[in-house]
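Running log. JK asked me to keep both predictions on one page so they can be read side by side. First protein, sequence followed by its tokens:
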Amino acid sequence: MPAPSSSPTPSPSSAPVNDRSRFGFDIGTRLETGGRTGVIHTPHGDIRTPAFIPVGTKATVKAVRPDEVAELGGQAVLANAYHLYLQPGSDLIDEAGGLGAFMNWPGPTLTDSGGFQVMSLGAGFKKVISMESTGEQNDDLIAEGKDRLSRVDDDGVTFKSHLDGTMHRFTPEISMRVQHELGADIMFAFDELTTLVNTRGYQETSLERTRLWAIRCIEEHQRLTAERSHRPYQALFGVLQGAQYEDLRRKAARDLGAMDFDGFGIGGALEKENLGTIITWVCEELPENKPRHLLGISEPDDLFEAIRTGADTFDCVSPSRVARNAAVYSKDGRYNISGAKYRRDFSPIDPECGCYTCANYSRAYLRHLYKAKEMLFSTLCTIHNEAFIVGLVAEIRQAMEDGRFEELEAEVLGRYYAKRV
């Protein structure tokens, strides 16, 4: 294994509050496959990488208090610019002192640009869009029985609120203003998300649109940083699209990698089996001394693959969402705790888990809460699921530092996917 190396460390904390030197990234242990450990420095604390970032879409990880997120090992929280723009409004959060102060979270925060939600909700898909190719191409994707709520043009996106039907407009400049008002330590450039069913021609057009939007985001970000000198520096990450086309992915990485971004988000549609390949493509083109965030993954096999090939941080709503629907993680796989066989099972969700839920509550009790429709169920199962995924990535990080990444991968995945629960 190559010797550890690092990029320059940030300047001392005596720098002005909005000084860019307050954000930085140090690289630690490296894997020959491209993976690495490291530390992201932000004005509100460090993030040891690789790291899973719990999602608090509307300034809350659903059903869990911020102090509980910290107790289960969460180092940072990611919120959604689209949702917070619509409710309660980014100006209100700015007045409250920023996202962290508003939600009583003292650590680092991230916000996405809202591009995914504008497209997915605009096309009537609510939470998710299938990333599996149907074999049919369609540049005007819309959910069955739904009306299109958003329209993209070269300047931005016009969309109808899913809350009250009012019309709104996002441009790169508006997205930057909204995210500056939200005040996250890391924010993402406004991009257009495509799907696997879009034609190659549209993918090319969209990629160029996202490139031009990236330039506008940087310009507006720099202007707002200078204007809002009373606020801590916010890092700006560019977002790489290109679907599953190697030439487009590499072009996006080269184009944005040459821009003045603090880091990069790897986004867009892809099939699960191509995850590591696509990450490898873009990481071969990106500057290695800047962090890379992979948007929207949380399954154990995906995490190992993403970490092996060079992604540093990850986020996904899945651990908390599936928890509310009775799906829980264990070292022996994910299972549904509402099953009848758990009615008199007084063991914890995972006997080897040390989280608050597993230390204090049985499967029988949790099943009872679910059947009784008690709110406590969501809290306890979300704590466990987030702790499981956050803890797994922390375990991977330690294994990388100890030189046993492949050994841990074989142990964890061999057991997890045996489905013995």
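And the second, directly underneath as requested:
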Amino acid sequence: MSRVKTLGQFIIEKQADFPFSKGELSRLLRDIGIAAKIVNREVNKAGLADILGEVGEINVQGESVKKLDVFANEQFIAALSVGGECCAIASEENEEIILVDNAQSKNAKYVVAIDPLDGSSNIDVNVSVGTIFSIYRRVSLTGPGTPEDFQQRGTEQVAAGYVIYGSSTMLVYTTGKGVNGFTLDPSIGEFCLSHPKMMMPKSGKTYSLNEGNYLHFPDGVKKYLKYCQEEDNATRRPYSSRYIGSAVADIHRNLITGGIFIYPATAASPKGKLRLLYECNPLAYIVEQAGGRATNGSSRILEQEITSLHQRTPLFVGSEDMVNKAMEFMQKYSPVSAQQG
């Protein structure tokens, strides 16, 4: 019988990959794992507790905030603040960065960007939601963190990951040396290595996007959708449409089985809707580390400049061959749209 390896054990074993770090990154990842367990507990009992419905507040994106959004946000901020490994946090739910104020944080090496509960509108109907996180080495040298610490290209991430709260709860992360997935074993309360060295298939049979916005898509996306729906035995088309409405859930499925996820620019959102810092950069980092590809319609997501915390971008992410084909259609039919974002 093979020995179970926990997330904590795995992180410690891999600590040697970062000689410049004296354990801070390991502790930071462990803190995220602990907060994820707490949020998972609340997600699982959301149907029983008075935690559904809306707080009545509007977040900085103009979206109404669910109670569980607020809870998740508070839990991750608290977990990341207590250890002193990061000096600042940027959350999708907060307009400004959150400075970590304790004795250790002024010399902390890292900052963390987080989407505490992606796809939260799905909670009421028991569909998977997730947490997305991204870790950078700070560029300011000492003292409190600054907004500039977060205005780094996605290529500068030292770690990124997501937690998916579904039929089983998984934490998937990368430190730039491959992707590994851990499933939460509720009997022992530990994330256990279940998906080592995850690799995304070069192609797949599913595409994921909100086809309800079809009329407002760029022509390149419309043409690619028609391509996906045509019959062609050589390329195993038509492809199946599988849109969950939770980016973590859609991308997690595609990471395992192959596929493409698209959230393009539209007339209503000419720069796209997903956030570059909190969603697109960490998901792109994971997908690339697993052999996939992520672009904004013309160029690599991880090379986009960040000029504001809540900057948005179009996103084409998934199996390499499928993203490449989508880019062909964008370059041919939407060369201007492909440059937006």
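Observation for JK regarding the second prediction: Helices lie at 7-13, 24-44, 67-82, 219-229, 247-257, 276-289, 320-333.
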